[in-house]
Amino acid sequence: MGLVGGLSAAGCQTAQAAPAADGQILFIGDDTAIADTVYGQVQGFLLRDIYQFRGIPYGADTGGANRFMAPKPPEPWEGVRPALWWGNSAPQIMDNRYANPYYSYADHWNYDDVSEDCLKLNVWTPALADGGKRPVLVWYHGGGFRNGNAIEQDGYMGENLSRKGDVVFVSINHRLGPIGFSDLSGVGGEKYRDSGNVGALDMVAALEWVNENIANFGGDPSNVTIMGQSGGGAKVCTLAAMPAASGLLHKVVPLSGSSTEALDQDYARKLGAYVLEEAGLQPSEIDQLQEIPWKEYLLLAGRAQARLSEETGSAGGFRGGFRPVADGVHIPKGTFYNEASGVSAEVPMLISSTFHEWAMSRTDPDMEEITADAAREMLKTRAGIRGGMGERAPEIYDAYAAVFPEAKPIEIMCLIASNRQGVVSTANAKKVQGAPVYAAWFGWEPDMFNGRMRAFHCLDICFWFYNTDLMLTHTGGGSRPRMLAEKMSDALLQFMRTGNPNTPGLPQWPEYTVENGEVMILDDTCEALNDPDREARKALG
Hints:
The protein has 16 helices and 19 strands.
C-alpha cells in the first residue's frame, strides 16, 4: 500500500515472458557460445536462448605491486578461455556476513571467492557478433564503496531483461574500500598519485572494455546506459562526472543512492597518512603496504579511520572514509555537473528511490504500534541507518505527518529516515546541464513479514530487471509484482533506447524540473505528481 495521497490501488496488468518450452534449454560445447575479445576468445553457454559469459577479465590482477595502482589490461591468452563462473568478489570483510537470519533469508547474498584478482565482468546477450546494435546496460552493484559484488542478489541477473528488451546486460566487480580508495598520494608521492581513486578507475576500465568489445556480443558501444543502486547509484553519478568516462556512457540511472561530490582530498590524504602510521611504516617504506595480506590491510585501515574520526571528529561523510576522492584530475572538485557544457552534459538521467529505504520495523513487530510521541523521541537519536535528528525531530515528524496524514507513526519514521533530499539534490545538480532528467519514487510493498518490509531498500531492483519471479524473498512472486515489473522494465528499456522512459503502460512521465519536482510514483497504480513531499522536506533544513 502507498502513502502519498492514496497512491496505491489495483494496477495495470500485462504478462511476463512465458516459461521455456519443454526440452533442452542449456547448451554448451566446443562450438557453442564462443566470443571474441581483444585479449582472446571466451566460452560461455546458451541458456533459454540467452548467451551468458561469467568472469571475463577486463583488468589484470590488482594484488602485489598492482595494489593502489591504476588498473592494467589483462594479459592476452591463447586458445579459448572458459567464462563459465563468476569472478572473485573484491576484498571485503566477510566475517559474519550471514549473521542476521532475517536479512540472510530476505537477501540471500551470493558470495564466492574473494581476492584481489577481481576485475571481472559478466555478460548476458541474445546474440553474438551479428551486427546488432543492441542497447547496453552496465550494472554497478551496491554495498556502499566497501561491500558487494556484481551478482550478490538474484535480482541482479540480466537474463530476463536481455530477453525481454533485446539488450546486452553487463555487470562488473571492481576494487572496494581501502584497497580501492586509500589516498596515499600525500605520503607516497608520484608513484601513488592514483591510489585514492583506483576503484573508480576500475569502473572506467570496465566501460573501456565495453567500448572495445561489446560489438562482439551483439551490443552497441555508442548506446551504453550505466545503472547502480545504493552505493552503485553514487558510483554511476561519479562516473558521469569523470572526464575519463566521457563518451563511454550515454544514459545514467542511479537508484536509492546518488552523489554530487567526492571526498575532500585533504581529508583523504590525512587518512592515508594515518594508514601508514597504523602499519608502523615510514614514507620511505610505503611499498610494504602492497605486501600486507588484504584482510590484514583492511583491518588496519579501519583502525586508522576510527582513530582519525576520534581525533578530529570527522568521519569523512555518510559513506565513510574510503570512497572516491575529489583529486581534481580523475574526479572534479566541487559539485558534479556544475558546468552547462561540462562532462556528461548530453547524458540523460533517470533517478529513483523507495518510500521506505530503511524499514525499521521489519524485524521488530513492537515498533508497528509505536506512538507519535515515542516516534518523535526516538527520531532524536535514530533515523534508520542515519544519525538522529536531534532536538528538531518533533518538528520534522510533524511536518511529515501533515503531508502524509494517513500514515502510521512507524511509516512517518520510515519516510523521514528514507527522505528524498539526496534524490532532489542530484536531480537539481544535473538540471544545470541540458539533458533531460526523470525522477521516480517506488512505493510498492510486498505482503510478507506481516507487511513490515514495506517499500524497502533494494526491493525495486528486481522490478526494473524483470526479475520479480526470481527474487521471491523480496516480492513473494506472482501476478501482482509482475504487473509492475512489466511497466518498470519497459520504461527502463525505453530509456536505454531513447533517453525517455515514456511507454504506453505508464501515465505520461514528465521531465523533472527544479520548479515543480515532477516524479513518477511506482506502485500498483502509477501516477505522476509534482514533488508530493516538498513541504515535508523543508523541515529537514
